[in-house]
Amino acid sequence: MATAIAILAAGKGTRMNSRRPKVLHEVGNAALLLHAWRISREIDPDLTVIVAGEGCDAIREFARASGISAEIAIQAVPGGTGHAVLAAQSKLAGFEGNLVVLYADTPFVRPATLRKMLLSAESGSAVSVLGFHASDPTGYGRLLLNGDGTLGKIVEHADATESERLVAYCNGGAVCASNRILAELLGEIGSGNAAGEVYLTDAVEVANRRGLICRAVECSEEETMGVNSRAELAAAESVFQNRARRDAMAAGATLADPNSTYFSFDTSLEADTVIEPNVVFGTGVTVREGARIRSFSYLEGCSIGANSVVGPYARIRPGTKLCRGARVGNFVEIKASRIGSGSKVPHLTYVGDSVVGEGSNFGAGTITCNYNGVSKNRTVVGDNVFLGSNTILVAPVEVGDGAMVAAGAVVTKDVPPGAVATSRERQVNRPGMAARLMKKLSRAKKD
Ligand code: UD1
Ligand code: CA
Question: What is the number of the ligand 1 atom nearest to the C-alpha of 32?
Answer without folding.
Answer: 30
